[in-house]
Design brief:
By secondary structure, this protein is of the alpha/beta class. It is built from 21 helices and 21 strands. The protein folds into 3 domains: about 180 residues, Glycogen Phosphorylase B (Rossmann fold); about 180 residues, Glycogen Phosphorylase B (Rossmann fold, 3-Layer(aba) Sandwich), CATH 3.40.50.2000; about 100 residues, 3-Layer(aba) Sandwich (Rossmann fold).
Amino acid sequence: MKKVKILYVFQVPSFWPSWESLYEGVAKDDRFETKLLWIDGSAGDQAQMEHAEEFLQNMQIPYEPFSYDRVMQFKPDYMIYQTPYDKGHRKIDTWTARYKREGIRIVYIPYGIEISDTLESRYKHFSLSVVLNAHIVYVLSESIRNEYKKHCMNWQAVRALGLPRFDTLKKKYVWLDELLNRIAGRRVILWKSHFPKIFIENGEKCQTTPDLDEYLQFAEYIEKSQDLFFVFMPHPKFTDNTIAPELRVKAIQLIQRLAAMANVFIDKNDDYRVSLTNADAIIVDRSAIMVEAGATGVPVLFMSNPKYHEPVPEPIQKLLDSYYQGTDSEMMIRFCDMVRRGEDEKKQIRHRAFAECVPFCDGNCADRIKEDIWQDAHQNISVDMPYALKDEDRIAIFGTGDLAAYCMDVLKENPNRNMQIAFFVDNNKKKQESLYEGKAVLAPEKLKSQQIDYVVIASDKYYTDIYFQLTAQINWPKNKIINYDQFLVLIKF
């Protein structure tokens, strides 16, 4: 029987655990043939993508640089992407829409877990182009699949078979001898911190991560607590220049203080699992690791900002409620004192909550996914996107924000395409009847009276709302709606 070909698209070293057990399991299975292509970080989040090639070399993972020719020479049945961000992480020639158009089945395995339920998080979880183009999205549980069903246009592609990242927690990881010597038998507390995170909710800035002043105060306690050893694990973007300046100054100050302490190791390794699985206790704020922390069996303190309660999907919230809770340095100190005494009154509660939140933690998630792909490969599918646009097609672009401007920029870069952008559409009444890029901006209800072949949705954040507005309210044909990523791929290729 013909082998099933899987192509992995690699970019971020710290996301490797989301694939590892699947990559290893498929490589050992004669029914499959695999290849890994690496995309450099020149068009992406360099803070997370630097050292990606070095990581592959150190791990002795065979790879080649990504190119269209290499993809088409391999002729994969499936392409598994590592991040959901086509725009922002990759150049257009690597976007999922280009390869979906070629009949390749796109697979997405979330590198994290859908831990937030803010409006911003919803579009990042459920409306980005990789998710919308995916033939299959594998998720943690049936409860998380239900979240996709509520918010994602492509929820039918979602399959709840567990995440491979939980398979690898069954392994035994060991500290390096140098670090073991520094620990010297002391209790180890892992402190995992997200980068300072600000949401815009109802037009106002809301910091969901804890106050960094509280973290700086806690650092003073750490320095005095030489009977404990701390592993501080900052997000790769913890001091990134994209952080708000006033927060970045404090983040840098915290790193510098901790780096000078004898009982602190700052873990910036791409693989977080060594520290996670060897810690005697864990302090964590908003991070996908806050779910994995529940698998370790050790006390977990969840830190949050008392000025803003970040909405969390119900299945995740139940797990967080089983953790110890903290909002300031005093609560962190009390938690450390409890760890020092060897107490953990929430252990059984936490164990039950984790089992409910993560039903597939049996070490077999990758095997289930592998078998599912094998079965799926023998099913016929059709690609639900146009293969080409004619130069005479009249196009309306819904949206007048950054993505609309990006669409126009790409059009200008391809003057051979005499595409007719007839007008723009926007729900903002202040923009209606004005000009954008030299074209009229119309109200959505005027669409039906215009001679238009396709409407391009130039929005990630409001994609679902706009799609339902077009189909349910305006009765615009579904086969005449194109997402911006598909539109740009059709223009360029």
